[in-house]
């Protein structure tokens, strides 16, 4: 089953317009100069989405939101709806990032509603799952990830164009790496779970890894059997690093 590798740069709350323009232009130039086989997506802060729509236009680099409201539109101050994200050129949206789960109290049900909203509004959700250090130390990593996945299934459309991002919370922005064995164990578990619930469709869903992916460790991570790409935070803020990570994507299939 061919799954196209996917590299997503999550800029989080970084990038004023000047730096966002420079970074986007550097990444577009680098991607355009290469015969890039993987899909490349950038998730800038909402304030830079419109700028990036203009800078990415015509290139192979696609745009993503970092979050969306579960509501379609209306009286929800401070929220951004999926239709608005589509309107500024987004194809994808990150849903349930651990920083939103922690900072904004997003629980599994809310994440599932947001995922459903993304499908409703014509976006491909990148749903983040992952355990905390405490949960891993208690030997509960697979149980936690299983519970995060379980709430999604009742809300999935037929043949969902879903992306799952496994991001162990303890490896995000910490420089602390999950080992290839730890990563493959959870990715293999997610693949099995998707296939058990969705049959052949589960095989088509991409599972990307996130958590301190850098040019130096990307190759070993992307070579793992059930890893279909990466969700890159810190290293997506320097075009040279992000492009080096793109260069580490193997021709897997
Ligand atoms: P990091 O972030 O690469 O800085 O660890 C990854 C993410 O949170 O998406």
**What distance separates the N and C termini?**
8 Å
* Largest sheet data: 8 strands, parallel, barrel
Stretches where pLDDT falls below 50 for ≥5 residues? Answer: none
Mean pLDDT: 96
CA-based gyration radius? 17 Å
Q: Which percent range fits the helix content?
A: 40-55%
- What is the CATH C level class, in words? Alpha Beta
Quaternary state reads: single chain
Q: Provide the structure class.
A: alpha/beta
Kindly report the spatial arrangement of strands forming the biggest sheet: 1-2-3-4-5-6-7-8
Work out the number of β strands.
8
Please, how many helices? Answer: 11
Strand content: 15-25%
Which small-molecule ligands are present, each listed once?
A: 2-phosphoglycolic acid
What's the number of domains? Answer: 1
Which series of helices and strands comes N to C?
EHEHEHEHHEHHEHHEHEH
CATH fold topology: TIM Barrel
CATH homologous superfamily annotation: Aldolase class I
Short description:
The protein has 253 residues and is of the alpha/beta class. It has one domain: TIM Barrel (Alpha-Beta Barrel). Helices cover 42% and strands 16% of the residues.
Helices and strands in order, then pairings?
Blueprint: E1 6-10, H1 17-33, E2 39-43, H2 49-56, E3 61-65, H3 82-87, E4 90-95, H4 98-103, H5 108-120, E5 124-129, H6 133-137, H7 141-150, E6 163-166, H8 180-198, H9 200-204, E7 206-210, H10 215-222, E8 229-232, H11 239-247
Parallel strand pairs: 1-2, 1-8, 2-3, 3-4, 4-5, 5-6, 6-7, 7-8
């Amino acid at each position: 089953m061919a799954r196209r590798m996917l590299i997503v740069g999550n800029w989080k709350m970084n990038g004023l317009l000047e730096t966002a323009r420079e970074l986007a232009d550097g990444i577009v130039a680098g991607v355009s100069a290469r015969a890039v086989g993987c899909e490349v997506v950038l998730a800038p802060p909402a304030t830079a989405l419109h700028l990036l729509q203009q800078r990415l236009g015509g290139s192979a680099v696609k745009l993503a939101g970092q979050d969306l409201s579960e509501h379609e539109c209306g009286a929800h101050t401070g929220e951004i709806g999926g239709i608005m994200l589509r309107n500024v050129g987004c194809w994808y949206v990150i849903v349930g990032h651990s920083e939103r789960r922690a900072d904004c109290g997003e629980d599994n049900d809310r994440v599932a509603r947001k995922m459903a909203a993304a499908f409703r509004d014509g976006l491909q959700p990148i749903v983040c799952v992952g355990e905390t250090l405490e949960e891993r130390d208690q030997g509960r990593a697979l149980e936690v990830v299983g519970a995060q996945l379980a709430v999604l299934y009742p809300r999935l459309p037929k043949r969902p164009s879903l992306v799952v991002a496994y991001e162990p919370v303890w490896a995000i922005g910490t420089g602390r790496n999950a080992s290839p064995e730890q990563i493959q164990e959870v990715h293999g578990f997610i693949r099995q779970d998707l296939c058990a619930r969705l049959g052949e469709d589960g095989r088509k869903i991409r599972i990307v890894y996130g958590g301190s992916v850098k040019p130096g460790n990307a190759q070993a991570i992307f070579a793992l059997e059930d890893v279909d790409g990466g969700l890159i935070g810190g290293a997506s803020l320097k075009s040279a690093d992000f492009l080096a990570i793109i260069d580490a994507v193997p021709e897997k299939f």
